[in-house]
Design goal:
- With about 240 residues, the protein is α/β, with parallel strands linked by helices.
- It folds into two domains: about 5-160, Vaccinia Virus protein VP39 (Rossmann fold, 3-Layer(aba) Sandwich); about 160-235.
- It is built from eight helices and seven strands, in the order H-E-H-E-H-E-E-H-E-H-E-E-H-H-H.
- The chain has helices at about 5-15, 30-35, 50-65, 95-105, 125-130, 165-170, 185-205, 210-230, and strands spanning about 20-25, 45-50, 70-75, 90-95, 115-120, 135-145, 150-155.
- It has a seven-stranded mixed sheet, with helices on both faces.
- Helix 1 (about 5-15) packs across helix 2 and helix 7 packs antiparallel against helix 8.
- The chain is elongated.
- The N and C termini lie far apart (about 40 Å).
- It binds S-adenosylmethionine.
- S-adenosylmethionine binds near residues 76 and 92.
Length: about 240
C-alpha cells in the first residue's frame, strides 16, 4: 500500500470514517487510494482541472485494484459536483487564492461539510477570508517535510469570531492549534523570516511604514507566543 508523505498523512488523519469523500485537485490520487486501502472510506470522488492528472489518478487506482471504487471527474474546483453529494472535501497542494475561488463558487460547502485545506501560498489571506465568509477554522496543524513547512486547516461552516492581528494571521489562532511538537520550531522559523523582512524594509530608501508597523507588531506577538505558548492570546476564540 502507498505510504503518504507527512503532509498528505496530516490531511488523511482529518478524514472521518465512512464519509462521502472528494479529493479536489487529486493529481495522482494518492490520498483517496490510501484512504480506501486503509478502510477509512469505501469509495471516493477524485477530480482535477486537467485530464493528465486525472489519468495519473486512474493509473494509481488501477495499480491497487480500486478503479471501481472511484468516480473520476474533470472539474474546475467543485463545478462538476452536485451540492451536498459529498460531506468531506480535501483540497491540498493548491495556492490559497485557488482554494478561495473554489469555495466562493460553491457556497453549499458552508453547510454540513468538513473541509480539509492544505494551502501552499497566501495562507494568512485565506485564513482571514474563511472566517469573514462564513467558515470556521476548527483546528490547524503544521507539518515539517524535509526543509518545508506546511499548514493543514480543518474547516467547517460556522461562525468564527477570531479577531485577526498581524501575528495571528501568520500563525493561526493559537486556540485552534493542534498539539504539534514542531510548533515552537515553526514559530521560530516565522520569527526569523519576520526579522529578515523588517531589516530589509528598514534598509529601503523609502520604507513602507504601514507594513513595517504590522511586521513589528507580528514580531512582538510571535516573541510572546514563543515565550508563553498558547496562554498568550491576542485574539478570541
Ligand atoms: C500540486 S497538485 C496537488 C496534488 C494533491 N492534491 C497533493 O496535495 O499532493 C495540484 C493539482 O490541482 C489541480 N488543480 C489546480 N487548480 C484546480 C482547480 N481549479 N480545480 C481542480 N483541480 C485543480 C492541478 O491540475 C494539480 O493536479
Amino acid at each position: 500500500m502507498i505510504t503518504l508523505t507527512p503532509r498528505l498523512q496530516a490531511v488523511a488523519d482529518y478524514v472521518p470514517s465512512q464519509c462521502r469523500f472528494a479529493d479536489v485537485g487529486t493529481d495522482h490520487a494518492y490520498l483517496p487510494v490510501w484512504l480506501i486501502g486503509h478502510g477509512v472510506i469505501d469509495s471516493a470522488v477524485a477530480s482535477d482541472l486537467r485530464q493528465g492528472p486525472l489519468d495519473h489518478a486512474r493509473a494509481t487506482a488501477g495499480l491497487y485494484g480500486f478503479e471501481d471504487r472511484f468516480d473520476f471527474r474533470l472539474s474546475d474546483g467543485l463545478a462538476a459536483y452536485v451540492p451536498h453529494e459529498i460531506d468531506c472535501i480535501a483540497i491540498a497542494g493548491m495556492g490559497g487564492e485557488a482554494i478561495r475561488s473554489i469555495l466562493s463558487a460553491a457556497p453549499w460547502t458552508m453547510e454540513h461539510t468538513r473541509l480539509i485545506l492544505q494551502p501552499q501560498t497566501n495562507i494568512p489571506e485565506l485564513r482571514q477570508w474563511l472566517t469573514e465568509s462564513g467558515y470556521r477554522i476548527e483546528e490547524e496543524r503544521i507539518i515539517r517535510e524535509e526543509n518545508r513547512w506546511y499548514t493543514v486547516l480543518l474547516v467547517s461552516g460556522a461562525a468564527d469570531d477570531t479577531r485577526w492581528t498581524p501575528g495571528t494571521r501568520l500563525t493561526g489562532n493559537p486556540l485552534r492549534w493542534a498539539e504539534d511538537s514542531d510548533r515552537p520550531a515553526y514559530l521560530q522559523f516565522l520569527l526569523e523570516r519576520l526579522e529578515k523582512q523588517i531589516r530589509g524594509l528598514k534598509q529601503a530608501s523609502e520604507p513602507n511604514t504601514q507594513r513595517l508597523t504590522a511586521l513589528t507588531q507580528a514580531k512582538e506577538e510571535l516573541t510572546l507566543m514563543l515565550k508563553n505558548g498558547k496562554e498568550d492570546l491576542s485574539c478570541q476564540r
